[in-house]
Write a structure and sequence with these properties.
By secondary structure, the protein is an alpha+beta fold. About 45% of the residues lie in helices and about 15% in strands. The chain is built from 17 helices and 19 strands. The radius of gyration is 21 Å and the shape is globular. Residues about 450-455 and about 460-468 have low confidence and may be disordered.
Length: about 475
C-alpha cells in the first residue's frame, strides 16, 4: 500500500500538462528495470484453536522488527504486511531472485517467531466485518475504507480488505515500448490470474469459491476502473493510450483528496480530479491520488526515488495471487517473457496464433472474453476459452518458452520456477488442488488449524522438472 506524497503543489490544468510524465526513460532494453512487492496475509490460532486474522498491533510490531534489521517491510490494509524488493536491471534476474528469496525467508521466519502463520491470497474465515477490526492505522487505509464503504460496489472493499497479491513492476523506454508492455501484459492477464491462482476453496466465512477466481471476479465489478480499461482497448498506439489514460485520470472519481495543508478531505460525494480546479487543488499530488484510484489489471503508476519523489512511470502487473510460489516466480515470469529477446519473440508468435496481439482484428474482444472466462471459470480453472483456443493448451506451450528461457538465464531456473513450469505444463494450479481436496468450509478451517494435512490427488504436480 503506497502512500501518495501530499506536498507537490504543481498545478495540473489539463491532460496535456502531464503527458511528458509518461514518455519513458529512453534507456536501452538491457538497462530497463524490474522489481516486485508481495503482500503476506497473516493469521493465528487462539488458545481454543479458533482462527483469527493478525491484529493491527501484531502487524505493526512485525514491521518495526523487520525494518530494524534492514528489510523493507510495510503495513498492508488488514492482517497483512508487504515486502518490496529493490529494482534491478532486467539482465540482473539472478540478483533479483536471490534478494526476493532472502526477503521471503526472513519475513516468514519473523512471522513464525511472532506466533503467526502465513496464509494464501485470502483467509477463508475473513469477512469484511472481521477485517475492519484489524484495519491498520494509516491515513490512506482509513480514507479508502471510508470512501469505498460510502460510495463503491462492495467488491471494492472485498479486494481491499480480504485479498493479498504479488505485483511486478517494469520500466519502459518510450511510448511504443509502453504500448508493447501493455498489449503483452493484458494478453497475459488471464494467464496470470489463472496460473498463479492461490486462493481457498471457501471464502468469506464459508462461501464456495470453487467455480471462480474471486479477485479477478471482484475486479470485474469495478466497472471502468477495473479489469482492462477502454483507454487501452480503444488505443491505436502508445501515444494514443497516454492521452486516453490522462483523460481517464482527469475524469476519475476521487474518494478523498488533499487540501492545501495536506489534510485529507472526505467529500460528500466522489468528485473527479478535474473539479478540484475550482478549489485550487488541482495539484500533482491530487493527480497522483486520482491515478491511484484506478485498479486495472495493469497499473500505470509512479516510479519514486529514495526520497519518495516521482521520477517517471512504470507498469505494475497486478494479477498474481500472493503466496510463496507467486512471490518467488512472478518476477522471473515477467522478466523472461517481456525482456528476454528470444522468449519475447516466441511469446508474440504464440499469442498471435491465439488472436491475442494488436494486429489481430479480434484482439480487444478476445482480451475481454478470455479474462471473463478465467474470472468465472465454473470449476474448470485452466480448461476455459482463451482467445481463439483453450487456456490449458496455451499454458502448456507457454511452459516450453518459459523453460527454455529460464534454462539459458543464470539464476532463473530455480526450484520454484520448475514448479511453476510444471503447473503450466500439466494445467493444474494450486487453487485447483485446494478445490479438489476441500469438500466443505470446515475442512478449509481444519487445514489452517493444523489438524488436517493436505492430500494431493494429482501426483503429476510433484514432477517439477519438465521434459523439453
Amino acid at each position: 500500500m503506497t502512500e501518495v506524497r501530499k506536498d507537490d503543489t504543481t498545478l495540473i490544468h489539463s491532460p496535456a500538462d502531464i503527458l511528458d510524465l509518461y514518455q519513458g526513460n529512453g534507456l536501452t532494453p538491457p538497462r530497463q528495470t524490474i522489481g516486485m512487492e508481495t503482500e503476506i496475509s497473516l493469521y493465528a490460532r487462539d488458545a481454543k484453536g479458533q482462527l483469527r486474522g493478525a491484529t493491527a498491533a501484531e502487524c505493526a510490531t512485525l514491521v518495526e522488527l523487520l525494518k530494524a534489521e534492514g528489510y523493507p517491510a510495510q503495513l498492508e490494509m488488514a492482517s497483512a504486511l508487504e515486502y518490496a524488493s529493490p529494482a534491478f536491471r532486467v539482465i540482473e534476474l539472478a540478483r533479483l531472485n536471490t534478494t526476493v528469496q532472502d526477503g521471503w525467508e526472513r519475513f516468514t521466519r519473523a512471522v513464525a517467531a511472532a506466533g503467526l502463520s502465513v496464509g494464501t491470497a485470502q483467509l477463508p474465515f475473513a469477512t469484511l466485518d472481521s477485517a475492519r477490526e484489524n484495519l491498520v492505522d494509516r491515513e490512506r487505509a482509513r480514507g479508502l475504507v471510508e470512501g469505498m464503504a460510502r460510495f463503491k460496489h462492495p467488491s471494492f472493499l472485498k479486494v481491499t480488505l480480504l485479498c493479498t497479491s504479488t505485483q511486478v513492476s517494469v520500466s519502459y523506454a518510450d511510448s511504443a515500448d509502453l504500448y508493447n508492455v501493455l498489449a503483452t501484459g493484458y494478453a497475459l492477464s488471464p494467464v496470470i490470474f489463472a496460473l498463479f491462482a492461490n486462493h481457498p476453496a471457501f471464502i468469506e466465512g464459508g462461501r464456495d469459491a470453487r467455480k471462480e477466481h474471486p479477485r479477478a471476479a471482484w475486479y470485474g465489478d469495478f466497472g471502468a476502473v477495473g479489469g482492462i480499461p477502454d483507454s487501452f482497448l480503444q488505443a491505436k498506439d502508445g501515444d494514443n493510450f497516454i492521452r486516453r489514460h490522462a483523460e481517464q485520470v482527469f475524469n476519475n472519481d476521487m474518494l478523498f483528496y488533499y487540501d492545501a495543508t495536506g489534510e485529507v478531505v472526505w467529500p460528500e460525494h466522489p468528485l473527479p480530479f478535474r473539479d478540484l480546479a475550482a478549489l485550487g487543488l488541482n495539484t500533482r499530488s491530487n493527480f497522483d491520488l486520482a491515478e491511484s484510484f484506478l485498479y486495472h489489471d495493469l497499473k500505470v503508476c509512479n516510479i519514486r526515488d529514495e526520497d519518495g519523489i516521482a521520477t517517471g512511470k512504470r507498469v505494475e502487473f497486478r494479477g498474481f495471487d500472493s503466496g510463496e510460489l507467486g512471490a518467488l516466480t512472478a518476477p522471473g515470469f515477467i522478466c523472461l517473457l517481456l525482456r528476454d529477446p528470444e522468449a519475447a519473440a516466441q511469446l508474440q508468435g504464440l499469442l498471435q496464433t491465439y488472436g491475442m496481439t494488436p494486429d489481430c482484428d479480434d484482439f480487444a474482444a478476445n482480451l475481454v472474453a478470455s479474462r471473463q472466462a478465467v474470472a468465472h471459470h465454473g470449476g474448470k480453472f485452466l480448461d476455459v476459452p482463451y482467445g481463439r483456443g483453450n487456456l490449458k493448451d496455451f499454458c502448456a506451450e507457454l511452459a516450453e518458452i518459459l523453460y527454455r528461457a529460464a534454462a539459458l538465464t543464470p539464476g532463473a531456473l530455480t526450484s520454484s520456477m520448475h514448479q511453476l513450469i510444471s503447473i503450466a505444463r500439466h494445467g493444474i494450479t494450486q487453487a485447483q488442488i485446494e478445490a479438489l481436496n476441500t469438500p466443505d468450509y470446515p475442512t478449509a478451517c481444519k487445514r489452517l488449524q493444523g489438524s488436517l494435512a493436505i492430500p494431493v490427488k494429482n501426483p503429476k504436480l510433484t514432477q517439477h522438472s519438465p521434459t523439453v
